[in-house]
Amino acid sequence: MRGAPRLPRELFAFLRELASHNDRDWFQANRTRYREQVQEPLLEFIAAFAEPLGEIAPRFVADPRPAGGSMFRIHRDVRFSKDKRPYKTHAAAQFRHRMGRDVHAPGFYLHLEPGNVFAGVGMWRPDGAALKAIRDAIVDDPDGWNSAITRRGFAALFDQGGDRLIRAPRGFDADHPSIEEIKRKDFVAFRAFADSQAVAADFLEVYADSCRAAVPMVRFLTEAVGLDF
Hints:
Layout: H1 9-20, H2 24-29, H3 31-56, E1 91-96, E2 107-112, E3 117-123, H4 128-140, H5 142-150, H6 152-155, E4 159-161, H7 179-182, E5 187-193, H8 195-198, H9 203-213, H10 215-224
Antiparallel strand pairs: 1-2, 2-3, 3-5, 4-5
Helix pairs in contact: 1-3, 3-9, 4-5, 5-10
């Protein structure tokens, strides 16, 4: 994509330093660096992704607001965690369905962390009603789900991940041909990138192509939970 914003190498340098100095004093002293090297470049990336996303999945949103938009905040929620480090050591964005209220909605995800860059697609930890709806959809249309996750363009790029049950969920036939898929608690897949790919001039296009390849999977999940794709 000609003129697309380019993520800077300094983004990863800042995050590496943050991992070694994860405290409020260091962050406050380096807040301007965070804004210039991480926040603003990623918000520019999000804004630029709005156009290809509109073609890939028109009901999904790329929102470049610094708060309440597609970019996750850098602050960790430590209220119920033994780990009291105040900051995340990665930057991330989620492009979810416009009817989605949180990270559990159908969506496309981008994770930027030194040595751990990836695109994610699907639904992570759907609530009980959504989880049952997805499992029911797989029971009703196993060929549709299997086609979505095994088609060459998708399977060549993405690996499925997430957790699954050991046994068949209550109310589902343990002998169903797709029982291993029905056991899933997360319906997600990931494509890994090298750090060097993320800062290359064509990364926005590469990321968009990844999302485009995942459309059949995301469409199946979106429609399974009663939303228009």
